[in-house]
Amino acid sequence: MAKLLKARDQHCRFPGCRLAAIRCEIDHTRDYALGGHTHLANLAHLCQRHHSMKQFTSWQVRQLGGGVLEWTSPGGRMYREDVPIPAACFTVDTADPPPRPLGGERHAPPHRRARVPEGMAPF
């Protein structure tokens, strides 16, 4: 879960902070002690400064889904943190499979065939 979060967040999730995720702490958006679950939808990377600020000031944060965070300042102004950049993209291979040998015979691909030293007979 930590690796997936690091790939998703890439940096501190406070608006404007770009401290790399490897230098941040994983924070429960809704405090674990108050019933927040340890789940991707309740976790995000925060640097130590912004983690402390969230915990000890009247800044508030909530997760909107998909890793998007919405911050509310002590004055009531709302900031929506950027949507995390996908760290990986998977595609479906649409190429046709290689043709099978005639007669249903199965042979190992050339790179998997055992090599017989020159001058020796195969088994």
Portion in strands:
15-25%
How many alpha or pi helices?
2
CATH class of the domain at 2-80: Mainly Alpha
Helix content: 10-25%
Distance linking N and C termini: 50 Å
Q: Shape from CA axes?
A: elongated
CATH architecture of the domain at 2-80: Orthogonal Bundle
Which sequence of strands runs across the widest sheet?
3-4-5
Reconstruct the topology from this structure.
Layout: H1 2-9, E1 25-28, E2 43-46, H2 48-56, E3 60-65, E4 68-72, E5 78-80
Antiparallel strand pairs: 1-2, 3-4, 4-5
Q: Overview of this structure, please?
A:
This protein is α+β, with helices and mostly antiparallel strands. The chain has a domain at 2-80: DNA Binding (I), subunit A, CATH 1.10.30. Helices cover 14% and strands 18% of the residues. It has two helices and five strands; from the N terminus they run αββαβββ. The strands form two sheets. It has a three-stranded antiparallel β-sheet, with no helix packed on it. A two-stranded antiparallel sheet has the order 1-2. A hairpin with a 5-residue loop joins strand 4 and strand 5. It is elongated and about 75 Å long.
